[in-house]
User: What shape does this take?
Amino acid sequence: MQTTYLDFEQELSEIDKRLEALGRQEDCSAEERAEQARLTEQQQAQEAEIYTALRPWQRIQLSRHTDRPQTLDYIRFLGTEFVELHGDRTFADDPAIIGGLARFQGRPLVVLGHQRGQTVQEKVRRNFGMPRPEGYRKALRLFQLAERFGRPVVSFIDTQGAYPGVGAEERGQAEAIARNIRELAGLRTPVIVVVIGEGGSGGALALGVGDRVLMQENACYSVITPEGCAAILYGERTPERVARAAEAMKITAPDLLRLGVTDEIVAEPQGGAHRHPQAAMAAVGRAIARHLDEVVGLPLDELVARRYEKFRRMGTTAVRESGHQADR
Assistant: This one.
């Protein structure tokens, strides 16, 4: 698969191409092995320079990066015995949300999330990860299934938002999102949420009310995109205005941890999840396992009460200056 480079990543392009060419050679000379070692060191230094000083708008661009692992990648990497379930038993199946039954480290659970798609054809089929009402009703069916059989839920968030089309509104988009939020608030089974890319508005929150809400280091979570914010506040979407809006909105993982919206930042490997997907997915897996161990044993009444109180507190407590971040 061809690598995609954002503007601020272009300096890595030539190094990556040369390393890839050397890696394809079966027999390398001593000079080529020395060059490979030198380029690897140069690559790591360049990654450190680029990714340790990211601005908010750059983090948001990374959250949307086409090479980032998506929900299906996480399910295949972390889970076993995945059985996908389809349809909302009302209207249709929405490919923008996928989910079903799986095992994680031997533990049976229900897993679901947004799927944007990776090829052009898949992106069109999955509506670029923007669900319609039937997608949220499919998710609700999975939540209820998990509660009925006492299985924890793991939910992956990665969407710009719910689809705003006429058909979606006619079929009750707002009601479907609101009902999911209400049902998740009282769901009598553990729920772990992981924001793995872009978390957009109610379209994300409909899958995002959990006992623990984790965010990858270069993810974002917001009621509106920086582009939309810039258009409303400044009347234009110039790059400068969008970057300014991104900084003011406080929607990156470090900001949201300080504000108490999320519970933990899952650190990405140096270079980001899009450049080192397996290491990034493994880190998410470790975080999920740790938080599942902490909440699975809680009495259900206490679990639901804590979850409800957690979301009721948002916006009413002082900015939290301390938090914990997963080890790299």
Q: What stands out?
A: Confidence is low (pLDDT under 50) at residues 318-328. The beta strands are 79-84, 97-104, 107-114, 153-159, 191-200, 212-216, 220-222, 264-266. Residues 58-313 form a domain with the 2-enoyl-CoA Hydratase; Chain A, domain 1 fold (CATH 3.90.226.10). The chain has two domains: 10-53, 58-313.
